[in-house]
Design a protein that fits this description.
The complex is a heterodimer. Helices cover about 30% and strands about 30% of the residues of chain A. Chain A is α+β, with helices and mostly antiparallel strands. Chain A is globular and about 90 Å long. Chain B is of the alpha/beta class. The chains are: A alpha+beta, B alpha/beta. Strand 14 of chain A pairs antiparallel with strand 4 of chain B.
């Protein structure tokens, strides 16, 4: 599988962070703020907010000069260490939400290995939109890009002038061509040196013979060029909170056979569970990283519905994930971590006194197995919701807990099969109150023998204005073969405001 | 000598053989329907527990399985404990199950996407102790698959 990497660029990270820390006391965003750093013995502008950028100040300008140019300029000392620490914390936050492999990309970015993660959000674009929205909510301006390589995504997030950029697989070369050489993460001296003979864009550099280039400028430009185009792998060393329980193993010889991987994974799980036990913690999720010999890190994540540290059960769940892990030419390091572990104390089993809780707790293992195999959303329980509209009267709840007892009307017949999307049917019916005499559904015409109804359901006007006048009439009908169906008419059969007056198949009775 | 023995004699013989067979068989627990005419015809007086049962309908019913689902829900309503219901997609209507006596809070639903997934989820559920029953909705059940499930049950 091609790697997919998200690069997040936080152009105003130090000032945004300052504003967030000050909360309500923060000065208005219209006031220009400059973060002051040191260049040698000179105090210089190291960073500025948007308002300050509009006044025409430049980075690296002497502070005395800047204050003279812009009246009312606020000066703050740059806290580079604090910014970096906060960036690490932001990476941990992103790790919880988006992908097990997230790293801080100092001084002002994050890098996320999104390989195989995007489908959880719909698609890659939706994932990026979600990421930007959450960052914006926290007060951080961000531009994001997803591409086949870290270098490529990094360059596009910073230099493409688009706040959100999805580069399709294999489409990186075209997009990188016109970007300046500075986008390659090269030291400023190298960029200047490259500018002298006229290398301004990545495309020009790419078109040049590599031998003379290396001879004159060293290997660094070529390495960065290869990384940007995804020809050279760049591992993303995942961030881990210092107190995260973890277990790691380094192999003298790379391993790759599935059985061997499973065996060591099980060993590591046992080790991790012992650590968790010593700390009285239970894992809520387990991340596994497999460091490949070809400089690539594969990862797997298992989520648990209740905190657990049962080594056998966890090892089984992790081993199921192994089939998605490509060991390539071999794996020489394995790391297992349990981020966000929760307290899990020993508990005396209630003797079999007919308590319901016991049975539910016992099922957590089964639920986790099914969730790992089928996806987290595919295992659930159902409970009733306060609504008379049939499709809204059922609500999913987590499978681990028994929801409160249900309350649906018991005196109205309800079909066993219910189509989440009602299917339009062709009918012959007398308006306004009669059930149809016949209807055509899925290409088969059925004559209605018996019918009962209508059961009128009104729109929930408190939810949206459109539903104010809406109503539906539900009928039970029986065809020649004795099959019974639940059909409805959108509207009351007279007034156009109540609905389209078309008929729909809602379900099949059993 | 008459080549065909009387039906009565055959019947007596059959009963004798059955009695001999059931003597050393472990008596299995059953879930009676509570309807005497039905239970009397089932070995042991009800549906055998720890076994695989197939519920199927004919005609259009084979397509939608509405009656079969409601029937299965009705059977499991009388068993104690949690039920795992594996299906390809979410087209089951919980209020109807409740009307059949199976309150949905007792049911864990698993949407498996395809039939292979349904069978795998069923097997996982059958191997787990403490479930009252596992229901799987499949279009066709091969001999291998049914044997696997029977062994797991």
């Amino acid at each position: 599988m091609t790697q997919r990497v998200i690069s997040v660029f936080l152009p105003r990270w130090p000032t945004d962070r300052l504003a967030r820390m000050q909360g309500k006391a923060a000065p208005s965003p219209d006031i220009p703020i400059v973060m002051v750093g040191r260049v040698g013995r000179r105090r210089a502008v190291a960073h500025m907010n948007l308002a300050a950028a509009k006044t025409g100040l430049r980075l690296g300008q002497a502070v005395a000069h800047a204050t003279a140019l812009v009246p009312g300029l606020l000066l703050r000392d740059l806290d580079a260490e604090g910014d970096n620490a906060a960036l690490q914390r932001l990476a941990l936050w992103a790790q919880r939400l988006y992908s097990p492999t997230v790293a801080a990309d100092p001084p002002d970015g994050l890098v996320i290995d999104a390989t195989g993660c995007a489908h959880l959000f719909g698609d890659e674009e939706k994932m990026l939109i979600d990421l930007r929205r959450r960052l914006a909510k926290a007060g951080y301006a961000a531009t994001v890009a997803i591409a086949d390589s870290w270098g490529g995504a990094h360059a596009l997030a910073r230099y493409s002038r688009r706040s959100l950029f999805v580069v399709p697989q294999g489409g990186l070369g075209v997009q990188l061509k016109d970007l300046p050489v500075a986008a390659l993460r090269l030291p400023p001296e190298t960029v200047q040196a490259l500018a002298k003979p006229g290398f301004d864009t990545i495309g020009e550099l790419e078109a040049t013979a590599k031998g003379p280039l290396a001879h004159r400028f060293g290997l660094e430009p070529i390495r960065r060029l290869d990384q940007a185009h995804g020809r050279e792998r760049e591992p993303i060393e995942p961030v881990l909170a210092a107190d995260t329980p973890r277990a790691a193993k380094i192999f003298a010889e790379p391993i790759g056979a599935p059985e061997t991987m499973a065996r060591y994974l099980t060993e590591l799980t046992v080790e991790l569970c012992a650590t968790l036990e010593a700390l009285n913690l239970g894992a809520k999720s387990i991340d596994a990283w497999f460091y490949r010999v070809d400089n690539r890190i594969e990862s797997a994540r298992v989520g648990l519905s209740t905190p657990a540290r049962d080594a056998r059960r966890l090892a089984k769940l992790l081993c199921e994930k192994l089939e998605n892990v490509d060991p390539g030419f071999g794996v020489d390091k394995m790391v297992l971590a349990a981020p966000g572990a929760e307290p899990l104390a020993y508990r005396q089993d209630e003797a079999h006194l007919g308590s319901d809780n016991r049975a539910v707790a016992d099922l957590a293992g089964l639920i986790d197995t099914l969730r790992v195999r089928l996806g987290a959303d595919a295992v659930y329980r159902l409970t009733s919701a306060e609504s008379d509209i049939p499709e809204r009267s059922v609500r999913k709840t987590p499978a681990v807990e028994r929801p409160a007892a249900f309350s649906w009307p018991v005196d109205w017949p309800r079909p066993t099969r219910f189509f989440p999307r009602p299917e339009p049917i062709e009918t012959v019916a007398l308006l306004p109150d009669q059930p149809p005499a016949s209807f055509t559904w899925r290409g088969v015409r059925r004559r209605v023998r018996r019918a009962d109804g209508p059961e009128r359901v009104f729109g929930e006007w408190w939810k949206s204005d459109v539903e104010l006048a809406r109503s539906r009439d539900y009928f039970q009908v029986e065809d020649d073969g004795g099959e019974r169906y639940w059909i409805y008419r959108d509207g009351d059969g007279e007034d156009a405001a109540t609905g389209s007056q078309r008929w729909f198949m809602a379900g099949v009775f059993g | 000598m008459s080549p065909t023995p009387s039906p009565a004699a055959l019947d007596a013989l059959r009963r004798k053989v059955r009695a001999l067979e059931t003597q050393d068989r472990v008596t299995r627990a059953v879930l009676p329907f509570g309807v005497p005419p039905l239970d009397a015809r089932l070995p042991g007086g009800g549906l055998a527990l720890g076994a695989l049962h197939e519920v199927a309908g004919g005609a259009d019913e084979a397509l939608y399985g509405a009656t079969a689902a409601r029937f299965a829900a009705g059977v499991l309503a009388r068993a104690q404990g949690e039920v795992l219901w594996c299906r390809r997609q979410a087209d089951l209507f919980a209020p109807s199950l409740a009307q059949a006596g199976l309150p949905p809070e007792r049911v864990i639903f698993a949407d498996a996407g395809d039939e292979a997934g349904v069978l795998a989820a069923m097997e996982e559920g059958l191997r787990w102790p403490g479930l009252a029953g596992v229901i799987g909705e499949v279009g066709k059940l091969s001999m291998t698959a049914s044997r696997r499930l029977q062994l797991a049950a």
